[in-house]
Write a structure and sequence with these properties.
With 266 residues, this protein is of the alpha/beta class. A 6-stranded mixed beta sheet has the order 8-9-10-3-11-12, sandwiched between helices. It is globular. The protein starts with 14 loop residues before the first strand and ends with a helix.
Length: 266
């Protein structure tokens, strides 16, 4: 895949998270998260409910503001500019430009119900990338064909299965040619028989070099597709390593018990 995810500044990490902290009231959800993601790398984030996985992911494109620390994507601080006393939250126009390079696929499909599959994919290309209608339409059609929905271009979301809607969501995100793609439990709302069709699309994107951070409870998928697996516990990165290191006889007690519970559920 050609695209922004393989371009940019130098050889440092594409995504760089340092000492990330976030509280909701008195509840400290993120307690100093550090994470680097290289260009073309697929990182799976696992952990129990409440460990901070989704909050961390949502901070990367500032769907959640963070209280302290920094997140850089391709050398640009996402949420804030300046430092120390001069640090300020970026304005919406600045944020929109940065977010355009950070694709996100949600647990619930978040499609516009009154727009066709094609129009859902075209919307960001027209409004954010300012593309001409014909170019946006060509890109939308190409990506919908890629995710196996070439015969559903004019279908409304209610006419699609959950798996098809999620594939439209993926097409919408990757059509923007993002530098990094964030995927938040994208199969958890799907019937089991539809999970495979969505994961196959992600597997293809990984093989083509798309940089991805995915929060998932699909351990076998994380094992197969990830360069690195990150286990979060109580708002911190507790363990990280290759799939073999993380899944292969870990001596970290909380990780062991988490994996044992997942195995029992499946």
């Amino acid at each position: 895949m050609s695209g922004n995810n393989l371009s940019g500044s130098g050889g440092g990490p594409l995504v760089r998270v340092r000492d990330l902290r976030k509280s909701f009231g008195a509840n400290e959800v993120l307690r100093g998260v550090d994470l680097d993601v290289a260009r073309g790398e697929v990182v799976s984030v696992i952990g129990a409910s409440g460990s901070g996985k989704t909050t961390m992911l949502r901070c990367v494109n500032l769907l959640e503001t963070y209280d302290a620390g920094s997140i850089e994507v391709d050398g640009v601080e996402v949420g804030y500019s300046g430092s120390g006393a001069a640090r300020r939250r970026r304005g919406e126009r600045e944020l929109a430009r940065i977010r355009a390079d950070i694709g996100m696929v949600f647990q619930l499909f978040n499609l516009f119900p009154h727009l066709t599959a094609r129009d859902n994919v075209m919307l960001g290309l027209r409004k954010v990338r300012r593309m001409a209608h014909a170019e946006a339409r060509d890109i939308a059609d190409r990506w919908l064909l890629r995710v196996g929905l070439g015969d559903k271009l004019d279908s409304l979301p209610y006419e699609l299965s959950g798996g098809q809607q999620q594939r439209v969501g993926i097409a919408r995100a990757v059509a923007m040619n993002p530098k990094v793609l964030l995927l938040d439990e994208i199969t958890s709302a799907l019937d089991p028989e539809l999970v495979g069709e969505v994961l196959n699309v992600v597997r293809e994107l990984a093989a083509e070099g798309m940089t991805m951070i995915l929060v998932t409870h699909e351990m076998s998928f994380a094992r197969d597709v990830s360069a690195r697996v990150v286990f979060m516990e109580a708002g911190r990165v507790a363990v990280q390593g290759t799939p073999r290191e993380v899944f292969g006889g870990q001596d970290h007690e909380r990780l062991r018990s988490f994996l044992a519970r997942i195995e029992m559920r499946h």
